[in-house]
Amino acid sequence: MTSLLSKMSTVIPAVLLLASVIFIPVYAAAPCSCADISNIKHRIEEAQVAIHTLETQIGFIDPVTPTREDTYAGLQGLLQAALNTANYQTSAPGLGTAPGQRGPAATLGDCSMVFSASASPCMLAVLKAHEQVHADECNRWKSVWNLITPWQYNLTLAQFARHEASSYRAELIYIDTMMQAAGLYSCPGMAPSPPVAVAIELKPITESIGNASLMEEFEVMR
Ligand SMILES: [Zn+2]
Any idea where the domains of the chain sit in the sequence? Predict the structure, then answer.
């Protein structure tokens, strides 16, 4: 009996430990609720448009084109144009901009992340899932070069486009996992509505690529 008890006293904590590992939700304190659904849907739309634009644009970028101030601005300009497509609203209302930045979040040259002060805890968590991919890439280069140049400049433009698309994918994965864990798919307003057609203009980033340009239409789920 004594030995059984002593065995049990070893087994029970082990079972409890295992149970806590299995049953504690990934997002114990979910930062989002049904009140955030509208903002979350905007971010999903933005990520869908951005991923499609970036991954399609990669085919138009010369593999040796570096990421530099002008080529980076060119890529960001195309992305913004796609996001600004008529009848298409992707900016989450009230998200604001991070200090000194054009968007609500950014990963700076020293790999630190900055966020808009007006972003809710939910949006902060979503934005952080995206910026963390940038910060990880930044830190990878920091250890190699100690960041003599901006971290983005270590990548070719095509690599950067792929990296940016990965950041948006990480954001979508975070949103999906968090929404499932917090049961947010049953929130009012989450019912699927018809896809909306988005037109984006694809064009080369630098003169060296040529003058190919075309309009493409695709659909995103809203
Ligand atoms: Zn990004």
Answer: 30-220
